[in-house]
Design goal:
Distance between the termini: 26 Å
Helix content: over 70%
Number of helices: 21
Keywords: Cell membrane, Membrane, Transmembrane, Transmembrane helix
InterPro entries: CPA3_Na-H_Antiporter_D, NADH_UbQ_OxRdtase, ND/Mrp_TM
Family: Belongs to the CPA3 antiporters (TC 2.A.63) subunit D family.
Largest sheet: 2 strands, antiparallel
Strand order of the largest sheet: 1-2
Shape: globular
Pfam family, one: Proton_antipo_M
GO molecular function, one term: NADH dehydrogenase (ubiquinone) activity
Order of helices and strands: HHEEHHHHHHHHHHHHHHHHHHH
Structural class: mainly alpha
């Protein structure tokens, strides 16, 4: 199935071209986008199955032999990321279609939305499959250019201001990454990841440390780790709900993926392990303290996003098979749950008219279905048993205890404190937005008092909300699908953790990746 490896990149790019030609025909654009992303999910699942059975799948693009040509590699880690990201982007697309139809924009939508969204998907998939540093850079740039457009949709003053900050920070991280690529090529004469394994090992330790540090700095900005994360809470919440959701779920995780890939494949030995552990602990604690201080749901979720990046770095910094496996498992969990919560926040804003906690109330009575769609992933994010969030954190705690070092124990404590504070932040949202009496300024059916809205719900047979503030069915269905997907991660946690463990073992051994790219030996 090697011929399927480029398809998660090629199909969205072809779909983007087709939807651009179909500008002015929104129904055709929607069907093309849905078909392309559904096919991407199916192909990604096939790649995961085959990479699990046969090992890494490799394609030399254009027939150019590595290292001269571009190599795409679908090992278990890359294929797993493809499956989760493709599933998430498909659900978010359905959500955005439902939102457009409900707002009356389905006949006159922005013609660039679907092409840009598919280009973003192609960039994410290319980054996961990249077999050389420069193509990884290209993947980052594709998704970032698309994200610039999506972030500023509507051209409001707030979005333009936030988009400007996002662009500047992204360009800075890209510049650092590009300089690091130039230095790596100057020192080794190649950018192919499999070939770099031997050549970087032969470099002086100090030079390797400089190269490693520059790559970590670039990826740290993209992953929004502390203290490089100040840009995120001011950028993400300003975008439309579907855009914020896909950004929160995927873009920072591409930076985490790049960190995992380079730290294990190119720079084994853990020379920066202590630094990663320190950064992980600070990211967890500072991020969650920021979340606790917020009075807006979107900003609160943005800070929890930063905080939980620390859990993933914790696993990477331990440099053990269990730690890395738990980190991979947690990435899969967090992509799903964080996206779901931002979609639920979009529903809250639609039903309540705001995401500010001081302007919300009574949502559990007004819209019981919305309450469930928020409550379940919120518990999962907080790590309540038996959800996948708890299982991922349990794996990280066990890995930290097995390490036994004082810094590892400190990270275990930081992780437990962060989990408790996450639960506190989520409980605060639940109490203020869902449980207390409805705020008098909240939208109500035909001017009726907010306290009677639940009666209108029952009268019209729609648990999602009363007339005038109904939650569109497609938006509800896509959010519910991701909630179910998040629950499914708990049901299949055993096999998923086995895949994560196999991927971690292959990463730490390095030879499966290298031998797949160079079966006759590295040149």
């Amino acid at each position: 199935m090697n011929h399927l490896v480029p398809m998660p990149v090629v199909m969205p790019l072809l779909g983007a071209a087709l939807t651009l030609m179909l500008a002015g025909r929104p129904r055709a654009q929607r069907w093309v986008s849905l078909t392309v992303l559904t096919a991407t999910v199916v192909v990604s699942a096939l790649l995961l199955v085959r990479s699990t059975v046969d090992g890494p799948l490799v394609v030399e693009v254009g027939g150019w032999v590595a290292p001269l040509g571009i190599v795409l590699v679908a090992d278990q880690l890359a294929a797993l990321m493809l499956v989760v990201s493709a599933t998430v982007t498909l659900c978010v697309l359905v959500y955005s279609i439902g939102q457009g139809m409900a707002d009356g924009d389905e006949e006159t939508p922005l013609s660039v939305y679907h092409p840009t969204y598919l280009v973003l998907t192609a960039g994410v998939c290319n980054a996961f499959l990249s077999g050389d540093l420069f193509n990884l850079y290209v993947g980052f740039e594709i998704l970032l250019v698309a994200s610039y457009v999506l972030l500023t949709l509507g051209s409001t003053e707030t979005r333009i201001r936030a988009g400007t900050t996002y662009v500047v920070v992204s360009l800075l991280s890209s510049l650092i990454f590009l300089v690091a690529i130039g230095l790596v090529y100057s020192a080794t004469g190649t950018l192919n990841l499999a070939q770099l394994v031997g050549r970087l090992d032969a470099l002086p330790d100090d030079l390797r440390l400089v190269l490693q540090g520059m790559l970590l700095l670039a990826f740290g900005i993209k992953a929004a780790v502390f203290p490089l994360s100040a840009w995120l809470p001011d950028s993400y919440p300003t975008a439309p709900a579907p855009v914020t959701a896909v950004f929160a779920g995927l873009l920072t995780k591409v930076g985490v993926y790049a960190t995992i890939r380079t730290e294990t494949l190119l720079f084994p030995g853990g020379r920066t392990a202590d630094l990663l552990l320190w950064v992980a602990g600070l990211t967890m604690l500072v991020g969650i303290l920021g979340a606790v201080a917020q009075s807006d749901i979107k900003r609160l979720l943005s800070f929890t996003l930063i905080s939980h990046i620390g859990y993933m770095l914790f696993g990477v910094g331990l440099t053990t098979s269990l730690g890395l496996a738990a980190a991979i498992f947690y990435v899969v969990h967090h992509i799903t749950i964080q996206t779901t919560l931002f979609l639920a926040a979009g529903l809250v804003e639609r039903r309540g008219g705001s995401t500010a906690l001081d302007r919300l109330g009574g949502l559990a009575r007004l819209s019981p279905l919305l309450a469930v769609l928020f409550f379940v992933p919120a518990l999962n994010l907080a790590g309540i048993p038996p959800f996948s969030g708890f299982l991922g954190k349990l794996g990280l705690v066990q890995a930290g205890v097995d390490d036994g070092g004082p810094l590892a124990w400190a990270l275990v404590a930081a992780g437990l404190v962060t989990s408790l504070l996450t639960l506190y932040a989520i409980a605060r949202v639940w109490n203020l937005a869902f449980w207390r009496a409805p705020h008098p300024d909240m939208p109500t059916p035909e001017g009726a008092p907010a306290r009677g809205a639940d009666d209108a719900d029952r009268a019209h047979g729609d648990p999602a909300g009363p007339p005038g503030v109904l939650l569109p069915r497609l938006m509800i269905a896509s959010t519910a699908a991701l909630v179910v997907f998040g629950l499914a991660l708990t049901v299949v946690a055993g096999p998923l953790f086995d895949i994560s463990t196999d991927a971690a073992d292959d990463l730490l051994r390095r030879t499966p990746y290298v031998e797949a790219v160079y079966p006759e030996g590295t040149p």
